[in-house]
Design a protein that fits this description.
alpha/beta, 3 domains, 15 helices, 42% helix
């Protein structure tokens, strides 16, 4: 069983250089531990029921100050029960010293706390109703975000975003189901008949409310579809890999159809990775003959994220490598390691080819030859896609091959987005069925209030699976265990 009473502690910031480090602790007995580890400079810690406050303090001489000195700290203190986790919570802001943070955490654990599990602070906030499941999952998305669009989408979800609309819709459906069930429970007070039937005006109002709910669900479904199509973090990553100065950036620009990457004759022009969305071109897709080694032409061709990285060259033993070049090479290897598809590029004009770093076990490899306009076709390897960014040769064929491979990859949609789409679709189906049941064929006849109410309860449950109100404990454990410790 989950508990929000145990005292837990964890670092809330990553280790490394910075101005401040934050240690977070929450649970019963918080004030007693704080008073043993820290001494307020003025005033004191808040008491239960009081407003949260910022406490300026220092390490206690009875504890850590004997080793570290009277290090000044600032403590954000929520006494509970109105804190972010539903109980007492404190965030201790320290100088950004990893040994000092470790010492503070060790001292708090010595006084009875335990190290928090991954996502336990977010889990407590969820159990206390301070954030819904969508916002909790957005915490993880913020931690994992690597590009501005990914971070923006995650922050929108954490701030409420679509979750507020789903909660409002859930309340509307609950009210509607309650109103309809009331016509069943109190039918004898309105009609002498055995079958309860609401009057025509009431059913017109119910029909309007059902139509509005269905329209809201359709709007939410469109928003989710747009999010899934536009979130770069959910798109398959296709990396162009190869040696320096072999035309990868020119090929990248040709594939995306615009000058997204800087191109120059000097080696090493690309120092960091650059990405652009590669959308399918329906005409190019169907007019291009599929390559023998890539089979299938799914009609629903997804987009992908095309990534141009720095060249990865073999290092001569004992050779001096500039720090910037080495850093660029390391970033390139990292991008290859997280790729879903790797387009291994080789220069048609080169007599030898540098080896490519090992590809991820699950990555699909596509071979391509660049700058084919510089050599005779007879000299080119047959297995690779022959391309020339200058002449446009082979670019559409390579783009089509990439999209075919991407179409066969497993879905990269986030679990949160996928669950929202499934839940909204199920709610739409239930509300549409309820609307049909509330409209007798031919405009006459009787309606079965029990069926309409039952379908609305199904819709409420479907929305509850999205917001977390109805989701199982095992799934919640899995969701929050993926968070970083301290979150």
């Amino acid at each position: 069983m989950w508990s929000i009473d145990e005292l837990i502690v964890a670092p809330a910031t990553v280790r490394g250089a910075g101005a401040r480090a934050v240690v977070r602790l929450s649970g019963a007995g918080l004030e007693g531990v704080l008073s043993q580890v820290f001494v307020p400079v003025a005033g004191g810690f808040a008491k239960p029921g009081e407003r949260p406050r910022l406490v300026v303090a220092k390490l206690s001489f009875q504890g850590l100050a004997g080793t570290w000195g009277a290090v000044p700290v600032e403590i954000l203190h929520w006494p509970g029960p109105e804190g972010p986790t539903g109980g007492p919570l404190a965030e201790v802001q320290l100088p950004a010293s990893a040994p000092l943070s470790d010492a503070v955490i060790a001292e708090i654990c010595r006084l009875g706390a335990r190290l928090a599990r991954g996502g336990e602070f977010s889990l407590r906030a969820f159990l206390a109703g301070r954030l819904d499941l969508l916002q909790a999952e957005a915490v993880l998305a913020v931690v994992d975000a690597r590009t501005p669009p990914e971070l923006s989408a995650a922050l929108d979800r954490m701030a409420g975003g679509i979750g507020r609309s789903l909660h409002a819709l859930q309340e509307t459906l609950l009210d509607l189901a309650a109103d309809i069930e009331a016509t069943i429970d109190f039918a004898d007070e309105h009609t002498p008949d055995a079958v309860p039937v609401a009057d025509a005006n009431a059913w017109r109002a119910i029909d309007d409310r059902l139509a509005n709910s269905l329209q809201t669900l359709e709007i939410l479904a469109d928003r989710l579809a747009g999010r899934d199509a536009g979130a770069e973090g959910d798109l398959p990553r296709v990396v162009l890999a190869g040696s320096s100065n072999i035309g990868k950036s020119s090929l990248f620009n040709a594939l995306v159809g615009r000058p997204a990457a800087l191109v120059a004759d000097e080696a090493g022009t690309t120092r960091d990775w650059i990405a652009a969305r590669l959308d399918p071109d329906p005409l190019a897709w169907w007019q291009t003959e599929p390559a023998p080694r890539v089979t299938g032409s799914p009609p629903d061709v997804p987009a992908c994220l095309l990534v141009d990285i720095a060249g990865v060259d073999a290092e001569e033993p004992g050779a001096e490598v500039a720090p910037l070049v080495r850093a660029a090479s390391e970033r390139a290897r990292e991008e290859i390691a997280r790729a879903d598809v790797v387009v291994v590029c080789r220069d048609a004009a080169a007599s030898t080819h540098a080896s490519v770093p090992p590809l991820p076990p699950t990555a699909v490899r596509i071979d391509a030859t660049t700058r084919c306009d510089l050599v005779a076709l007879l000299r080119l390897p047959v297995a690779a896609y022959r391309t020339s960014s200058l002449c446009g040769t082979g670019v559409s064929e390579l783009r089509a091959a990439i999209l075919r491979v991407v179409a066969e990859l497993p879905s990269r949609r986030s679990p949160a987005t996928l669950r929202m789409q499934v839940g909204v679709a199920a709610a739409r189906q239930a509300v549409a069925a309820a609307q049909a049941a509330a409209r007798p064929a031919g405009g006459g006849g009787s309606r079965d209030e029990a069926i309409v109410a039952s379908l609305l309860r199904q819709a409420v449950a479907a929305v509850g699976e999205v917001t977390g109100a109805e989701i199982g404990t095992a799934i919640i454990d899995r969701i929050f265990s993926r968070h970083c410790i301290g979150k």
